[in-house]
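Extended Data, panel c. Modelled sequence:
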Amino acid sequence: MAVPKRKTTKSRSGKRRSHSNLISKNIVEDKKTGEYRLSHHMDLKTGFYKGRQVLDPKD
């Protein structure tokens, strides 16, 4: 079984973990309503996705 010969330093483990950071969400403004929503998601208030009515809007 592989066992490290020396202690892994904080800087070395930090370099290894540098890519596992939080990524911000891609939020866009809806063209029709002006509301903010996630890209590639439908607008829950109007029910539109890519210019088509997909779902009945909430009341």
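The first helix runs from residue 10 to 16. This feature is highlighted in the accompanying rendering.
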